[in-house]
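Researcher: Here's my situation. A collaborator sent me these components and asked whether they could plausibly form a single complex. I don't have experimental data yet, so a predicted model of the whole assembly would be a useful starting point for our discussion.
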Amino acid sequence: MPPLLYEPRRRLWLLRTPSTSYAVRIDEDDVVRHVHWGADLTMAQALELAERTPAAGSSFDAVGGAEELAVEGGARFGPPGLQVRFADGTRGVEWRYAGHDADDGCLSIHLDDRHYPLRVTLHYRVHEDSDVIERWTTVENRDERLPITVQRCDSAAWTLPCRGGYRVSHLVGGWNSEFRLRRSEVATAETVFTSRRGMTSHHANPWLAFDDGTAGEEHGEVWSTALAWSGSWRITLHRDPAGRTTWTGGHGHEGLTWSLAPGETLSTPVFAGLFTTGGFGAASRAWHAYVARHVLRHPGELRPVLYNSWEATGFDVDEAGQMALAARAARIGVELFVMDDGWFGRRDGEHAGLGDWTPNPDRFPHGLRPLSAEVHRLGMRFGLWVEPEMVNPDSDLYRAHPDWVLHMPNRGRTELRNQLVLNLARPDTAAWAHAWLDRLVTEHDIDFLKWDANRPFTEAGWPGHADPDRLWIEHTRSVYEIMDRLHADHPGLRIEACSGGGGRADLGILARTDQIWTSDNTDPVDRIAIQHGFSQLFPAQVMGAWVTDSPNVATARQTPLRFRFHVAMAGALGVGGDLTTWTEDELKEAAELIATYKRVRPAVQHGTAYRLTGEGALTAVGYAHADRFVVLAWCPSRPYGHQPGPLRLTALDPRATYRDPDTGATYSGAVLVRSGLPLHLPEGDHASVLVQLDRIED
Ligand code: GLA
């Protein structure tokens, strides 16, 4: 069955994914309206539905049927996804259908304004191996002389079937508390999810999921969308009093205007969406598979066990100290050693040095080569922390180029963490950033960069530029471009995305990076909730998770080493503790746990993830990979001393038999599915267990 079907009489398209379909039609007024997003339909069924979609209402609500891109213009009163103003002051658009292209899973519907030289194209892309539908918009100024002002240009609007009510799932947070899942009723109102920070943000994430209030982890209809953009963004959810639920989203926040020069085309980021009948768990698994198949650059690689120096040494890094950490890291089985902040310029704290990307001569008298060589000699890869988008005012770079930062005339330059944002939308600043990164990677045999960005934009001006708000788009594009060039020139280089922890986690950055530093909060109890939220969209292989010291630096909570490892093993495992203070027993235990992780790593990183519902304080995840199922279960506290009941593993095959290679115990699949796996958790708080089950026969 071809993925794109067209019915010319009704001007209706039916897009088909392996188990869902999506339909749009062009009405007589040449407006593209939504028909269906959900279970698979035949063309005949889609046509039946198209006839049924409501037409115009009363004079107070003159436009009927939700639009695929909600424009400003005419009797439309909902949140617009496209707002333009032409040179003569006219606002809004009136559509004339201008044809379409359909090829290889991609549909482009072209719309022209009836009077002005504006061409808008709605793009759709479907894949044979995914239920994710990718959508984006291009706007083109076809005039030869005059600019067009763009006040809003969203990637897409999405529409739910009319139902009595909906629930929205979204992620909230802050520094040290990212990705906390919230579920709330969709209000009959406009609800805005946004970042005005120039970064994706810790506070909200451009991922949403919708259900009618009845879905669960493993059952029910769920619609979910995610925007592939790492700068400011806005998604406006609108439920009107008639019960129509739509959301429109794209890059940029409210109040920005972009001038589209004669002949210029602006392309939005992809806004991806999927539908499933398998609940929130199936939605996440569909996202994970999509990320692996269509977003990541190196999905088939196993992420190495990483060591990072940040919590161990802070800014206090030097050659001898890092070599001592590296020696111990290698001993316990670490595969990638990353030196964090403090290695360059006069960077002995937050106040200075950012921007001066040459090794600090007191700390590294012979440069970074001896450390890089030693790390490689120990059999590990070598990584470095960088923050290319930022500068301390106390730096040689800022003294030489004070105009390179985001700033405005007659306004202060607000410092956050003693730093300012470099305007990478400027070609000269971007060229400088690319040049030193390229040199650094080349000259020091760098295998991995942790690319950080530790503050949001303020006073985001670009003096002298005719269209200064462009920086909100161009800065992010420039980050993408620099990463793309580094990848092209250094095929072995891997990059971790970081923004004060998980402040830049989205599908856009994931197309250029291999993993995300999930949160600066490494407390394993807090991490359980953070990882739960993160896993809604992102697969375990991109979830950076370190084992650090106890008591935890952020929460002062004391937890056993084993518990810390078991929580971090649910992602791309790393170690971030001060290994020079770990006892021989601790190093031995860490080495054993890392060896265990390496054994289960193909399942964790390349398997299919299940968030398992435990009893009481028990949380667990399971990863299915070929004939193996790996369970990680955590119980932070044990109210009344009760042992949690068996953990049901409904993803297993009830006809099969499974064996735990560590204990030799065998279980029938039917018992594991219906009654569950007895966990035998150790006594007391912060108990955890890792169980591997191998299918042995049918
Ligand atoms: C940010 C990161 C940390 C660490 C510091 C270094 O906060 O999230 O992991 O790299 O910067 O200054």
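Model: Some features of this prediction you could bring to your collaborator: The longest strand covers residues 687-697. The mean pLDDT is 96.
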